[in-house]
Specification:
This protein is of the alpha+beta class and 210 residues long. It has one domain: L-fuculose-1-phosphate Aldolase (3-Layer(aba) Sandwich). The chain has seven helices and eight strands; from the N terminus they run αββββαβααβαββαα. β1 and β2 form a beta hairpin. The structure holds 1,3-dihydroxyacetonephosphate and zinc ion. Zinc ion (ZN) binds next to loops. One of its GO terms (cellular component) is cytosol.
């Protein structure tokens, strides 16, 4: 996709997330790998509902701003993921309601916060590792995500939100939507006896792909 088209797609998809209540205020940020040297990332403080294509930031792999407005303070962790996972082409970071609620619970399994109970969670996301709490923009989030980047595509930031990778921006968005829905179901099912998918069922789904 050409750079201008990519910018317009990011503006449209971000607005769609905002209009459907996945983000409020200035929370959340999106990025896309433009080529081996550069990523496109949303500006810091910008509402996902009101982005402007010409103001989106282009930064190099060391975080230097090449064009556009000042990049997201989380662009450091976006870059850490791209550097450590060549298969990741786009990243969505949100404070969406159910995943953020989940991120505030005590006693989550750090390797996988949601044990699988539906096929699409397995097919699109697989597992949800948990990064301990650090303040937004803290370099430790980048370090922790960099270490985990090639072992999964979705990560819960404790007491903060979620980070989801995809092959491209549409894929990352769809993975995020599936994950937010899974977290919603997880809360709806509290107090009910869940039949979790068995190890054999999960293995079968992993072979099928999405
Ligand atoms: O979600 C956010 C911080 O974690 C938003 O930060 P930015 O506005 O800098 O992208
Ligand atoms: Zn955030």
């Amino acid at each position: 996709m050409r750079e201008e088209e990519q910018k317009l797609q990011m503006v449209a998809l971000a607005r769609s997330l905002f209009e459907r209540g996945y983000s409020v205020g200035g929370a959340g940020n999106l990025s896309v790998r433009l080529d081996r040297e550069r990523i496109l990332v949303t500006p810091t403080g910008a509402s996902l509902g009101r982005l402007q294509a010409e103001r989106l930031a282009v930064v190099d792999m060391r975080g230097n701003l090449l064009s556009g407005d000042k990049p997201s303070k989380e662009s450091v962790f976006h870059l850490a993921i791209y550097r450590n996972n060549p298969a990741c082409g786009a990243i969505v970071h949100l404070h969406s309601t159910y995943l953020t609620a989940l991120s505030c619970l005590q006693g989550l399994d750090p390797d996988n916060a949601i044990r699988a109970f539906t096929p699409y969670y397995v097919m699109r996301v697989g597992k949800l590792a948990v990064v301990p709490y650090y303040p937004p923009g803290d370099g430790n989030i980048a370090r922790e995500l960099g270490e985990r980047a090639n072992r999964g595509k979705a990560f819960l930031l404790a007491n903060h939100g979620v980070v989801v990778c995809g092959e491209n921006l549409v894929d990352a968005l769809e993975n995020t939507e599936e994950l937010e829905e899974t977290a919603k179901l997880y809360f709806i099912l509290q107090g009910h006896k869940i039949r979790y998918l068995t190890a054999a069922e999960i293995k079968d789904l992993e072979h099928r792909g999405k």
